[in-house]
Each structure stands twice: as structure tokens, then as C-alpha cells.
Input
Amino acid sequence: MSLTLGDVVAVLDATYPPASAQSWDQVGLVSGDHEQPVRRIHAAVDPTLAVIAEARDSGADLLLTHHPLLLRGIHSVATTSAKGASVTALVVGDVALYVAHTNADVADPGVNTALAAACGLDPASAHPLSVEEEHGLGLVGELPAETDLATFAGRLAEALPAAPGGIRVAGPPEGRVRRVALLGGAGDGLFDAARAAGADVYVTADLRHHPVLEAREEAVVADGTPYLVDAGHWATESLWLRGALDDLVGALAAAGHDTATLETHVSTIRTDPWTFTVGARTAEGGTA
Output
């Protein structure tokens, strides 16, 4: 029997249990018929109009994304809005959409374990950053050897996909780094958890001026850490996609499904909303 969407959803739900998502999140199957066949699966961070068109044009039956399409309520799916046009394109194109968001963040393997690997953490040392947070977002662990902040950030930049915003770092280049806290995507709500975990550096994204300034001020009156690295929302989460598809195919095969002709593809579209930067300077006035 051919592989169906219902077969794939069952494995995805087991791999990324919807109950492990944050209470505000919207995950799981968004569109599609459980009985429709699945021959090609497309994966992306964001279900943008361009990504949906790419999936449809490539013949995908299922689009797996990290970010939800319908996180907040909408009252119309008319094509006069981006959300409506997206829903229409999925339905008309016969492309199912499945979302694994914060439930993929906390999974092992998942979004944060992929980022931990990019940071160079010893896998055996990594554990949840904050068990007090709902379902424990983020990880903290150790590098195999201490290094300086500039070298750490440079290695991370090489491991991440290129993005226009690059990597922003708050801390002295010569600062010593061994213990790393991390959270893929927006993470300025876990500064206290990173500090409490004794992290030398905290890697996340979408850091804002005032929270970062206050966090660094608090660090100054302590021992100077954690240093902060804003590595970009899309970049820190896109690392998960290839592994997620490979794990999905393996789990389907283990469940007895024929995956010999199943095709998978990671989107070539960079959904980082920024397109270029101008005049970036270091704190010392040099070009970044």
C-alpha cells in the first residue's frame, strides 16, 4: 500500500508530540486529507507564499515547517490577504501542511540539539536550560575545551547558513567560553535561566536593545558572563530541517512503511526577512 498522509502524521505526532508544545502554540496538521498519498516531502522554516509555491512546483504532497501558518486567529481565507492566499495555495495545490514548532524545539533530536551541534557542544553534557519553563525550552552544555568568545562566534558562523544579519556578539573577544546555553529562535526571555545555569555565553536570536543592555549590565556586576550571541532566527532553526526529514524517513521505515521511492527536499528559499545590511561596525569602529 502507498504511504498516506495519515501514516506520516502518526510518525510526526509520535516524534514531536503536540502535547509537548507550549500552551500558546499551534502545531500539527494544518491542511490535507489523511488518505492522500505522500510521495515527496518538502521542509522549510516558514510557510511563506514563496515556499508554498516551491513545494507545489516541485510536486510535494506534504510541506513540513517549523513556524506555524495560523498562530493567531483569522476570520477569512480570501486571497486578498497573505494568510488567505497561503491557505488557498495549499488547498488548490493539494499540498498538506504540518507544523512542528516548540514541540520540535524540545525534542531530542530537535531544533535545539541541532543548534547545540553547531555550537560544538559535547552531546553528553547537554541538558534542558530551564526546567521551570513550560516543557523546558533551551539547552545548556559544555564545549570539549575552553576557547575565547571571538573564536567561538567564528566557528558558529561557519556552522550556520549565511544570513544578511550575520552574528552579533555582546562581550569581549578575548572572553573565555566553555559552558554554553542556547535556544534556537527568539530567546531574550531566558537570560535569567542562562545566568542561573552558569553559562559563559548564551546563543539565541531576535535580541532587543533594552533586554540585552540590562542583561549585560547585570553580568558586569557579577563575573561578566554570560556573553550574548544573536545568531539569527532563521539561521539557528534551519539547521534542524535536513535531520528532521532523515529521521522521519527512518521512523517510517522502522514502522514498516515502504520508503524506497519517498523523496525529501529542504527548501532552497532563505526566509530570513532581512535582505542586506549597510555600514556594520564593531564597537572599536572597525568593519565587522
About this structure: Residues 216 and 224 are 8 Å apart (CA to CA). The chain has two domains: 5-101+237-266, 106-231.
